[in-house]
Design brief:
Blueprint: H1 4-18, H2 23-35, H3 37-60, H4 62-68, H5 70-92, H6 106-121, H7 124-133, H8 145-178, H9 184-204
Length: 210
């Protein structure tokens, strides 16, 4: 197990990192504003489960392969771009009724959860981040280096989940006021779809893995 001081430093560093809105936060906010607080919270859980996948990948050494292979990095990156674009197009073509009510059907919540997981899993920059960030706080000479990496990574994920949940709650509150307007459903759908396509575009032109 990492020392208490190390855990505290990682927790503080993680807090500073996760509160800065990035693509995942924008995705969560878009869900909560357009489809309600529950949708935002479910997407936050999905996104952070995706982060957990990257933590276990870092422990297993899979992230090293992703960081060292241009082909692997590019494949994951474009899979994420295509998936975000697909969500955007699907949103733009969906029925306004999906965005008209705060309550989201269980089937839709399951889909939102899976989408949240995939949005983060298919983001190679998240994997590279864990590879670059976690080793700074791990005693590589220790016999339990892998366990240290796992504990520190999960600490970051838990803090991220708390931060993202707060964003989801705030976004849901704002969205609830917005959706009272007669034209809110159509506006929410168009804005949400455009944001997803924008995220896909940003991911596509974000530069090389270097």
């Amino acid at each position: 197990m990492p020392e208490a001081t190390t855990l505290l430093i990682v927790a503080l560093a993680s807090l500073a990192l996760v509160v800065i809105p990035g693509p995942a936060v924008i995705y969560i906010l878009t869900r909560s504003v357009s489809q309600g607080r529950r949708a935002g919270l479910v997407s936050a859980i999905g996104v952070n489960l995706g982060s957990t996948v990257h933590v276990f990948a870092a422990v297993a050494g899979l992230t090293v392969l992703l960081a060292s292979s241009a082909a692997a990095y590019t494949a994951v990156k474009w899979a994420g771009v295509i998936y975000l674009a697909w969500i955007g197009i699907r949103t733009l073509l969906s029925d306004d009724a999906v965005f008209a009510e705060d309550a989201t059907e269980p089937t839709a919540l399951r889909r939102i959860f899976i989408q949240g997981v995939l949005v983060n899993v298919l983001n190679p920059k998240v994997a590279i981040f864990f590879l670059a960030f976690l080793p700074q706080f791990v005693d590589q000479s220790a016999s339990n280096a892998s366990m240290q990496t796992l504990v520190l990574g999960l600490t970051l994920v838990i803090i991220g989940l708390i931060s993202d949940s707060i964003y989801a709650i705030l976004g849901g509150s704002v969205g609830s006021l917005f959706r009272r307007k007669p034209s809110a459903a159509r506006t929410s759908r168009l804005i949400a779809g455009s944001i997803y396509l924008g995220l896909a575009g940003i991911a596509a032109i974000a530069g090389t893995r270097n």
